[in-house]
Design a protein that fits this description.
By secondary structure, this protein is mainly α. It has one domain. It contains 14 helices and no strands.
């Protein structure tokens, strides 16, 4: 297979009818490392919305059980990508996602914003750092895939296109990004988790590198000290060089899913999708979105 042969295959597909298959090819074959990094940053962005960051701090899932929460989120979302919405695994993953969200008081606007981060952040990351930019087919398919996920989750007033997802995300961040002490604790815990995957002496360098990849609005929301312009330039240049190196490599012949990521460390003996995720925490209750009469009722 030649380097751009899979892209040619994607362009022969229908980005609406074949959206989830295109997204699977994009995330498991073309850009598995980039999609993983982008979705990590997507989740990180959500902490900067105080209503989201504050709730995550109250549940203590991301401060006391950071690795488990990281693993469960990645495994549940990727089960849908790997197996499809109609599969037993996909239905089980969506059921668990909905059960978790029903346990907490999460507004529809916050739920929709989180979904927007999953659509917009990967495209922006890949266009900046990937071995090639996303094609229009992939961009449309990504939006359709996550719009379908949003419907299964019972989220209302979903954007119709990638451009609407992007506008929704930018407007929501401009209106809601802000300081919250609990959200900062969640952000710090996530930084500690990411640096824990590497030898301890590298932690300060890795933290600086992560800050260099965050935009100014996110740094301000968490009150992190911005890295120097030179540091930001060198870090971003290094990530771009990685993308150029990948372009010269042979295309991936086997898919790479989140369950294969070495960062997933919590289940060395395997796992069952129905056992993943959080359980209700005493004193942190409520029902975010009532899923009545739709797929989310599964």
């Amino acid at each position: 297979m030649k380097r751009y042969e899979r892209l040619a295959q994607i362009r022969r597909m229908d980005p609406y009818r074949d959206a989830s298959e295109i997204y699977r090819l994009m995330s498991a074959y073309e850009f598995p490392w980039d999609v993983t990094r982008a979705l990590e940053l997507a989740l990180y962005r959500t902490y900067a919305v105080p209503s989201i960051g504050r709730l995550l701090a109250r549940t203590a899932e991301l401060t006391d059980r950071s690795q488990k929460r990281y693993d469960d989120t990645a495994l549940l979302l990727d089960a849908v990508v790997e197996h499809g919405f109609a599969s037993e695994q996909g239905r089980t993953a969506i059921r668990r996602i909905n059960q978790m969200h029903r346990s907490y008081d999460i507004g529809n606007d916050d739920m929709r914003y989180v979904l927007c981060t999953f659509v917009v952040t990967p495209k922006r990351w890949i266009d900046a750092y990937g071995w090639r930019r996303l094609s229009r087919h992939e961009t449309v398919a990504c939006a359709v895939h996550y719009r379908t996920l949003g419907r299964h989750m019972g989220i209302k007033d979903l954007p119709e296109s990638y451009e609407e997802f992007e506008s929704c995300l930018d407007a929501y961040e401009e209106a809601h990004f802000g300081w919250d002490a609990g959200a900062r604790r969640v952000a710090d815990a996530t930084l500690d988790l990411m640096t824990s995957w590497y030898p301890r002496p590298l932690a300060p360098v890795l933290r600086t590198g992560i800050f260099a990849l965050l935009d100014d609005s996110l740094l301000r929301a968490f009150r992190y000290t911005p890295p120097s312009p030179a540091t930001r330039t060198w870090v971003r240049r290094a990530v771009r060089l990685r993308g150029r190196a990948v372009r010269l490599m042979p295309p991936r012949r086997a898919p790479h899913y989140a369950r294969q990521n070495w960062e997933i460390k919590g289940y060395p003996d395997g796992y069952r999708l129905e056992d993943l995720g959080t359980r209700p925490v005493p004193g942190v209750r409520g029902c975010p979105v009532r899923h009545v009469g739709g797929p989310a009722a599964e």
